[in-house]
Write a structure and sequence with these properties.
The complex is a heterodimer of chains A (about 525) and B (about 240). Helices cover about 70% and strands about 5% of the residues of chain A. Chain A has helices spanning about 5-10, 15-40, 55-85, 95-100, 105-120, 125-155, 155-160, 165-185, 190-225, 235-250, 255-275, 280-300, 305, 335-340, 345-370, 375-385, 385-390, 395-420, 430-445, 450-470, 470-475, 485-500; strands spanning about 40-45, 50-55, 310-315, 425. In chain A, strands 1-2 form a two-stranded antiparallel ribbon. Chain A has a two-stranded antiparallel sheet with strand order 3-4. Classes of the chains: A mainly alpha (about 525), B alpha/beta (about 240).
């Protein structure tokens, strides 16, 4: 909402006057924009007639909030921002000057106290405060936990920065164990620990890691080889249906079908690669988009094989390398073999480690390939195709290997997805999924594995967190479903990151060629939003 | 291969952009150990000839023979694998890759067999590049980018080096450095060079032989000295005063 004012008036106007004026403009624009969106609403009355509901009070609230926001931003925000770098260029985090003001010991202690008190009162919160306020209290507790964790991370920032990959992998490897332990202590029994861990391991852990894997796979095609692929979900679908069909029809094991699904997806990657060899940029994007839709429409319409929109059910679970199974009725059921209590959490924890392993495999292969001729050729291809050819690089095979490798990891992720869900249908493979995966790659920084993992965590974890914000129902009414706003979160994150960090969370790329010793690269950047 | 044998033989080459003929049957020969310059005005077809040697665009008539092999119909990367290296028009270095990575890409034809040795050679030739090894290509100055482009081409251990306007947009001092480097390569390593230039004076002084191109035809040829002395060449390309 850019409000233009004449420069002469700006010179004489004090910030307060300017803020007041801009607040009025913003209010007028908000009124004009929202009078039909918010002020009026169509509804059906009891006899199914369309009626107009007037909501002038809500419109007034929105307009006043807009004006107040604009006023505060112009009067205080702009002068403040002009004196501050809000984001540090190197780390992409708050700069020291800001962060030391934000993370202080008294605040940290206060946060710990809040967490402790609220955790102690957890069971009786509803009784003490009523359901509405208890919701807020839980949200406050979550914020306090996040703040305390952020403080700890800030305190150890140099250590974390130096050992980021090792720490990250360790944290991911210990995550289910810590979740089970914490919840077991909290609930007072191991069984409660396993039961409570389901949500954390499945909804957060596995869900995020699937997207990390998909985004890392797409990163090979888009981030390294620079081939804009809008139909990546097609390979995910190929992998999922390969396992679903072969697993249900022929009873083959996951461990045979995982490589098979990867190989099939790679085959389809080559098949897509051939017609688009001469295309780049926008043209390539359109064809890959169409390819994704073709696969989805085939899955819907080829009913004899795919069972159409109804999908395939009863997809077999993964076995513990063929030694034990996770089916309660099976004689080899893990709890019977190991003689422990029955719980559905074992399967989820096993799946968590499986997808973590697949993710690490993807990362390992990507890192190794970047140092090999084919990976270097991908990056050179992204930079300049004509120069590549005149250096003797066969751009045809280079593109096809990029498509095939990226597709293969999509296929792996797809067969894992099918095994985890136990059910696949074309609905899971819509264009929006491709868009989300691509958004994660772009937000994380094209070509950067760490950045992409962080982006997946924020974006997918963020949408899961939205499900937890039930207290918002107190504010916006009982019909309010926060998870419907996940795309808004995506959009906001995109805008904010692209404004402040046009190269994504991690904008630097690690060089692969050295003379004698490794040295940090000055001004080496991945792709950026402009230019 | 002995000095004096023909390395690159271009015979009657015609190239079209759509229906527009850019080259009307061009004959050019480059012998082993020579520096051959092709000069001409803007739009004469110099760069088109350079690109036609590399098969993009492909010649519609005529033949291009390299070291006895007909390369007219080969795909671009196969032509490069015959050990023809090119510093293309506009340099075309990889902007987001470091200087070292750019050089490494050049060596991919050679499978990095002589990588360390060749990198040292390039740095001896262009010491400026050594100071810039960890910098990304896009942040180099124009002259450094040209040096990198030539260095990258040399990493493939070429039998023939094609240079498309190496002096374009560079300061006279840098142009001199680059021409000196080319002369040095030719003298010490016997590298055969075919260069296209608008800077006729510098190119003809450097060259063993030269060709003059006008509107897609080779109109004149001779040794560098002969062409420099020729009144027509002087009138058309030298007396204009910029060199």
């Amino acid at each position: 909402m850019a409000v233009t004012t004449s420069p002469e008036r700006d010179i004489v106007a004090t910030p307060m006057q300017r803020a007041t004026r801009e607040a009025l403009y913003a209010g007028a624009i908000a009124l004009g924009l929202f009078v039909l969106f918010i002020g009026l609403r169509t509804d059906q009355n009891i006899s199914n007639e369309l009626i107009l509901v007037q909501r002038w009070w809500l419109l007034a609230v929105v307009v006043v909030l807009t004006m107040a926001g604009r006023f505060l931003y112009v009067a205080y925000g702009q002068p403040f921002l002009a004196n501050q770098k809000i984001v540090d260029v190197a780390t992409g985090l708050l700069p020291e000057s800001m962060a030391t003001r934000f993370f202080r010991l008294p605040y940290f202690i206060a946060a710990i106290v809040i967490v402790a008190v609220l955790a102690f009162l957890a069971g009786s919160l509803d009784g003490l405060l009523g359901p509405g306020l208890a919701g807020y209290a839980r949200f406050l507790r979550a914020l306090a936990i996040i703040y305390a964790l952020a403080s700890v991370m800030f305190y150890f920032r140099t250590f974390i920065h130096a050992h980021f990959s090792a720490l990250g992998i360790t944290a991911l490897a210990l995550y289910p164990i810590i979740v089970v332990l914490v919840l077991a202590l909290y609930g007072g029994s191991v069984a409660a620990g396993f039961q409570g861990s389901l949500k954390w391991v499945d909804n957060y852990g596995i869900q995020i890691l699937i997207y990390v894997m998909l985004a890392w796979g797409l990163n090979i095609v888009v981030g390294l080889a620079g081939l804009l692929d809008l139909g990546y979900v097609a390979f995910y679908a190929v992998g999922a249906y390969a396992y679903a069909l072969l697993g249900t029809q022929y009873g083959l094991s996951f461990w045979i079908l995982l490589p098979a699904a990867g190989a099939m997806a790679a085959f389809w990657g080559v098949l897509l690669g051939f017609p688009v060899l001469r295309l780049r940029g926008d043209y390539l994007a359109i064809v890959t988009l169409a390819f994704g839709e073709i696969i989805r429409l085939v899955l819907i319409n080829w009913r004899e094989v795919t069972n159409g929109s109804a999908g395939i059910t009863g997809i077999p679970k993964v076995t513990f390398f063929g030694l034990m199974t996770f089916n309660v009725s099976d004689p080899n059921y893990i709890a019977k073999v190991l003689d422990i209590a029955t719980s559905s959490a074992y399967y989820k924890i096993f799946l968590y480690y499986l997808i973590l392993g697949l993710c690490l495999l993807t990362a390992f292969v990507t890192i190794r390939l970047r140092r090999m001729p084919v990976g270097r050729a991908w990056e050179a291809l992204r930079e300049d195709e004509i120069a590549c050819r005149s250096l003797g690089i066969n751009t045809t095979t280079t593109k096809l290997t990029a498509f095939a490798t990226g597709a293969m990891f999509g296929g792996f992720a797809g067969s894992f997805f099918a095994a985890r869900q136990g059910f696949v249908s074309p609905e899971s493979f819509i264009f929006l999924e491709s868009a989300i995966i691509l958004a994660i790659v772009v937000l994380g920084g094209m070509g950067s594995l760490v950045g992409i993992a962080v982006a997946a965590m924020v974006m997918i974890g963020g949408t899961e967190v939205l499900r937890e914000l039930d207290f918002l129902k107190q504010v916006f009414g009982p019909d309010f479903t926060p998870e419907l706003y996940r795309m808004l979160l995506f959009g906001m994150a995109m805008v904010i990151v692209m404004l402040w960090k046009p190269r994504g969370f991690v904008g630097s790329r690690e060089p692969t060629a050295f003379l004698k010793e490794r040295r940090a690269v000055s001004g080496s950047f991945t792709k950026e939003g402009h230019g | 291969m002995m000095a004096g044998t023909t390395l690159l033989d271009i015979k009657g080459v015609q190239t079209y952009y759509g229906n527009i003929r850019a080259l009307n049957g061009v004959d050019v020969t480059v012998k082993q150990g020579e520096i051959v310059a092709l000069i001409g005005a803007n739009g004469a077809g110099k760069s088109t000839l350079m690109m036609t040697i590399f098969g993009a665009p492909r010649a519609r008539a005529g033949t291009i023979t390299f070291a006895g092999t007909d390369i007219t119909q080969l795909p671009t990367h196969e032509i490069a694998r015959m050990r023809i290296a090119q510093s293309p028009e506009g340099r075309r270095i990889f902007p987001r890759m470091t200087v070292m990575e750019n050089l490494q890409m050049g060596a991919s034809l050679d499978n990095l067999k002589h990588y360390d040795e060749d990198v040292e050679k390039v740095f001896t030739l262009f010491p400026r590049l050594k100071e810039r090894i960890t910098q990304r290509g896009g942040t180099l100055s124009g002259g450094e980018q040209q040096m990198l482009s030539i260095g990258r081409a040399l990493m493939a251990r070429p039998k023939l080096l094609l240079l498309d306007e190496p002096s374009l947009g560079l300061a006279p001092l840098i142009v001199k450095q680059i021409f000196d480097a080319i002369r040095e390569l030719n003298r010490t390593q016997g590298l055969t060079v075919f260069l296209v230039e608008q800077n006729a004076f510098g190119a003809l002084k450097l060259a063993t032989r030269g060709y003059v191109m006008v509107n897609g035809n080779v109109t004149m040829s001779g040794t560098g000295k002969e062409l420099l002395a020729d009144p027509d060449v002087r009138a058309a390309y030298l007396e204009g005063g910029h060199h």
